[in-house]
Structures are given as C-alpha cells and as structure tokens.
Design brief:
The protein is mainly β. Helix content is 0%, strand content 49%. The strands form two sheets. The chain has a six-stranded mixed sheet, with no helix packed on it. A four-stranded antiparallel sheet has the order 1-3-8-7, with no helix packed on it. The chain starts with a strand and ends with a strand. 31% of the residues are buried.
Length: 113
C-alpha cells in the first residue's frame, strides 16, 4: 500500500489550495478515505472523510463550509479542496485509508501573510 500526498505549500490567509493523494497497492474503489492534519504541538485531527463511491462525506467542524473532499476512482486519487484558508489551518496534511493504519508521509500547508 502506498499513499502519496501533494499540493501543499505557502498560501496567504483567504487563499486556496487543492491537495491530492494518489493511492496504489490496493483496490482503491472499495475503501473509504480520509484526510487528517497535524499542527505543530497538537494531535492529529480528522479534516474530512469520503465513502468508497463518493456518495457520503463528512467534515471536521473547523473546516465545514470551506473544505471539500472528493475522489476519482478511475485515477485512484482523493482530493481536498481548501478555500478561505486561515492561519489555524497550518499543518501537515495526511491521507488515510479509513479504518487502517496506512498513512501517507504528508504534505505541509502553511497559511501565513
């Protein structure tokens, strides 16, 4: 199993980023997927989750209305569109196969002016 995140970077408050996670080594379309993040000195927290077919999504309270999770099963990829970014969104963002201990290495998002 391999999960490879990309798309992080430095962005100003109010800006947008789109993260991608490309999966391999398993049947992607049969697994729900999640995005988590970890800010410096804080525990890892759930950002968003999506069911295997994309029909159901859920979000952490702090990102509702600003972030959108989606997936393309033909490309084995899950996305996280992040809008109206705030400094408190800064952290390393990780992709996860829901219910497993498989994680990517993460991609760093820094929201700062």
């Amino acid at each position: 199993v391999q999960l490879v995140e990309s798309g992080g970077g430095l962005v100003q408050p109010g800006g947008s980023l789109r993260l991608s996670c490309v999966a391999s080594g398993f049947t992607f379309s049969t697994y729900s997927m999640s995005w988590f993040r970890q800010a410096p000195g804080k525990e890892r927290e759930l950002v968003a989750g999506i069911s295997n077919d994309g029909s159901n999504t859920n979000y952490g309270d702090s990102v509702k209305g600003r972030f959108t999770i989606s997936r393309d099963n033909a490309k084995n990829t899950v996305y996280l569109q992040m809008n109206s970014l705030k400094p408190e969104d800064t952290g390393v963002y990780f992709c996860n196969m829901r219910g497993t201990d498989y994680w990517g290495k993460g991609t760093l998002v820094t929201v700062s002016s």
